[in-house]
Amino acid sequence: MIRKHFAGFVASALAMAVTAQAFAGTVTTDGADIVVKTKGGLEVATTDKEFSFKLGGRIQADYSRFDGFYTNNGNTADAGYFRRAYLELGGVMYKDWAYQIAYDFSHNSGGDNRSEDGYFDEASLAYNGFSPVSIKVGRFDPEFGLEKATSSKWVTAQERTAAYDLVDWTNAHNGGLGIQASGTVGDSLYGSVGAFAKDATNQDKDGDSTKQFNLRGVFAPMHEAGNVLHFGINYAQRDLSDTAFDGRIRSRLGMRGVSTDGGQDAGSNGNRLTLGGANNTPAGAYDTDKAWGLEAAWAMGPFSVQGEYVKRDVQADSAAFSDIKADGYYGQLAYTITGEARGYKLGKFDSIKPSNKQIGAWEVFYRYDHLSVDDDNGAFANIDDVEGKVHNVGLNWYANESIKLSGVYVKAKVDNAQNAAGDDSGDGFVMRAQYVF
Q1: Closest CA to 436 of 64, 88, 79
Q2: 328: how many CB neighbours lie within 10 A of its CB?
Q3: Which range is the signal sequence, renumbered to this chain (predicted)?
Q4: Rounded to an integer, what distance in angstroms lies between the CA atom of residue 29 and that of residue 148?
């Protein structure tokens, strides 16, 4: 029934968008004037800025082909799927209140075991009356890392760094709720602190949810498009005491198609790297899970370089188990051949806007990901650290401000792990068509 009503709302909203395309302009009422904008979605706002309403979204359609370690038998497989299919609704009420709703019909942007009917990626309410501080409550992703802070629409590579797989819980809401305070100091400092109750499938023996705390701080003495110097620090902690959970630390190594949540993938032949941990980790095995992160970026004109380092420590709470330690990093270089600079807003990168409407903007990039786990428990007790190394070389074409076409070649190499056929390296490519409205 909910899906039926939601579908009706979507149809009505799209009809409004089509109508607005034909009658864009300023509408005067007996109250405040209303301005209707249709560029980049449908936006309706009062001129006194007391109320606004914006309907938008994004569609990312991916096709990938891969072999070697990426499949169990080493043979070539492919995958076609919607990476994201968002409908987004947001706006302002009574000037100081803001709301944001994002529904993902592909259910492929979150973690495993999402509902096959999609899910709410965000449903939040924020109070901005304490400017420059904003207080947000509801369902939304915690903040951890520069690439995560940057919208999936405008990250350089199709997939965010594989190093994030080591700390995947730090920046995902996992179906829970949270509260976060964020704000700026002057033009160069940004910070956020949040508390979250999440992991409905990982409750403790009393049915209590997993509690998590996140902290992020950014210093950007240079903070304009094409002139960026950015430094950041992150910390996250969650309580695993008396909690049974899936403790596996796994990575797709940049190739989502080996196992997708919403679309065709490699099926039983898809292979994901397990670096440590165990499924069905019993309650009482571990206590506190901690993660740290450092981030840095520099941009000058069409050239940008960025990198992050993450570290995780899963602390044992039983003599039968030992701590699990993980660390990872990435470094990325990007250059816009046509000369445009990457957009930047304090704490995150933004879109590239083509200056030439005929040829668009063309960007080339390279990124290296490295991830490693030290686990002396179970099957990993008698082997050295399991490591993953991923090279990403790609090309992005921003045809206009709404359409982006991307292609990336990915080469992965693993140490102390292999697939069923004995392969420890794999190759693949991913192509994406993105439409943002």
Answers
A1: 88
A2: 26
A3: 1-24
A4: 41
Closest alpha carbon to 419 in 279, 269, 277, 276: 269
Q: What is the pTM of this model?
A: 0.89
Residues 308-345 have pLDDT tens digits of: 999 999 999 999 999 999 999 999 999 999 999 999 99
**pLDDT value at position 26?**
54
257 pLDDT higher than 80: yes
DSSP per-residue codes, 374-430: EE-SGGGTTS--EEEEEEEEEEEEE-SSSEEEEEEEEEEEEES---TTS--EEEEEE
Q: Are 341 and 226 in contact (CB under 8 A)?
A: yes
Can you say whether residue 145 is alpha, beta or left, with left for phi > 0 and alpha for psi between -120 and 50 degrees? left
Is residue 83 within 8 Å of residue 74, measured between CB atoms? no
Architecture of domain 49-436 in this structure? Beta Barrel (2.40)
pLDDT at site 16 = 46
pLDDT at residue 2, rounded to an integer: 39
* Residue 72 near residue 421 (C-beta atoms within 8 A): yes
Strand blocks (E) in 301-360? 303-316, 324-336, 344-345, 348-349
Closest by Cα among 73, 393, 83, 411 to 257: 83
